[in-house]
Amino acid sequence: MQIWVNGRLQDAEEATVSVLDHGMTVGDGVFETVKTTDGRPFALRRHIDRLERSARGLGLPAPDRAEVERACAAVLEANPTELGRLRITYTGGLAPLGSERGEAASTLVVALGPTVRRTGATAVVTVPWRRNEHGATAGLKTTSYAENVVALARAHQHDAGEALLANTAGRLCEGTASNVFVVVGGRLLTPPLSSGCLAGITRALVLEWTDAEEADLPYEVLQEAEEVFLTGTLRDVQGVSRVDERELPGAPGPVTAKVSEIFAARAAADLEP
Ligand code: PLP
Question: Where, if anywhere, are coiled coils annotated (predicted)?
């Protein structure tokens, strides 16, 4: 496996990033996961836009877009694959302990991962922890995913595939690696970005391609919604079959199935939406 590290392709087994990289020591980094089909990245421009926004939000120097594109192309070419995912990681770079991150020393790593596609309906759990919609990193895709890891572990303890979080105002926010949509009274709704959720690319495309609307929703909507589904790069549109103890028989329901169909058709027709 060849991966891109700081300007060149290297053998993954031998490639190194310093243990004193700010991304490693303080989680000062941002990332993207990009779906690839037949060796071609999906919505790469949107992913690089978000990488840039997240980097700016952390105060990192802007990543070199041309280098990110070149790196993705080089990694895909060096590792021909049917279907997979690119992982782009961009961090504060080498910074000796106790020092500030080096302004010009950011680290860029692009690697290719195996296909882990989350298909079929999944169970979800609610959790007691709150997403801070007012936090400094709200809405940024940072490498500090420890909270998400803990929430997902809770889901796994309950044989569920995802945990859904509320924000500090008790409003529905997002999952650990997904955005959430609900059907209420026949309307298809998803929390607004002001809830603190990530500006998911799959979420944005569902909003563009269907009649889904943004709405500020109470967390409890999950206990009443006619249908619930998740969106994300590795799951596209995934139905929810259970929320905590509440079964949603027949998931994916008719609205979820329709959205899933529209998404698959549009995404297949356009790799650069
Ligand atoms: N929310 C969080 C916290 C995520 O990590 C992700 C993606 O991994 C998403 C939402 C979904 O975003 P996207 O559709 O861009 O993959």
Answer: none
**Pocket of ligand 1 contains residue 68 by CB under 6 Å:** no
Question: Any residues with CB less than 8 A from the CB of 18 and at least 6 apart, and which?
Answer: 24, 94
Atom of ligand 1 at shortest distance to CA of 232?
14
Tell me how far the alpha carbon of residue 241 lies from the centroid of ligand 1, in angstroms: 20
The model's pLDDT over 167-202, given as tens digits with 9 standing for 90+, comes to 999 999 999 999 999 999 999 999 999 999 999 999
Ligand 1 proximity of 200 Cβ (cutoff 6 Å):
yes
Cβ pair 234, 35 in contact under 8 A:
yes
Question: What single letter denotes the amino acid at residue 250?
Answer: G
Question: Closest residue (by CA) to atom 5 of ligand 1?
Answer: 177
More confident residue, 177 or 104: 177
Report CA torsion sign: 17, 116, 143, 271: positive
Q: How far apart are CA 55 and CA 60, in angstroms?
A: 5
Residue nearest atom 2 of ligand 1, based on CA coordinates:
177
